[in-house]
Structure formats: C-alpha cells, structure tokens
C-alpha cells in the first residue's frame, strides 16, 4: 500500500451523525489507483468487513489516543 500523499481524505470526526453513507460515497468514487485515508476518533473495526466485502485493502495506523488513519485502496 502506498504511503505517499493520499488522493482523498475523509475526516469522519467532522461529520455530524453516522458517517457510514459518506464513507460509502467516497469508496464508490475511488479510482482503481487512488488511496482514500479515513481519519477517525477510534479504530473503525466494523468497517473492515465491509471494505473486504467490497474488494478493498486497508492499513490502519493509530496516530494519537483519539486519532486513527485508515488507508484504503482497491485490492
């Protein structure tokens, strides 16, 4: 997985309410060679199965106690 500057970033901490639909919208628009970095205040473990089912790979990194980055790409 590339660790360069991501093509897209979605900060779920800035979304009012449930961010799932916003995440899905970003995934639907993600190009085959693009990387989306999801920024979240907790490790989004429930999302991992959804990503796998939709054909994405991901790498998660904890940046701080309340900041997690998930780099997402097409498998």
Descriptive account of the structure:
The protein is α+β, with helices and mostly antiparallel strands and 75 residues long. The chain has 2 helices and 4 strands, in the order E-H-E-H-E-E. The protein has helices at 20-28, 45-53, and strands at residues 8-11, 36-40, 56-64, 67-74. A 4-stranded mixed β-sheet has the order 1-2-4-3, with helices on one face. Strand 1, helix 1 and strand 2 form a beta-alpha-beta unit. The longest helix is centred in the first third of the chain and has 9 residues, at 20-28. It is globular and about 30 Å long.
In terms of topology, how is this protein built?
Blueprint lengths: L7 E4 L8 H9 L7 E5 L4 H9 L2 E9 L2 E8 L1
Parallel strand pairs: 1-2
Antiparallel strand pairs: 2-4, 3-4
Task: For this entry, give a set of tags.
75 residues, alpha+beta, Translation Initiation Factor IF3
């Amino acid at each position: 997985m590339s660790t360069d500057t991501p093509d897209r970033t979605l900060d779920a901490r800035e979304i009012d309410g449930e961010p799932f639909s916003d995440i899905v919208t970003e995934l639907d628009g993600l190009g085959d060679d693009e990387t989306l970095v999801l920024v979240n205040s907790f490790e989004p473990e429930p999302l991992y199965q959804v990503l796998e089912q939709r054909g994405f790979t991901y790498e998660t990194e904890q940046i701080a106690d309340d900041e997690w980055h998930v780099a997402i790409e097409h498998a």
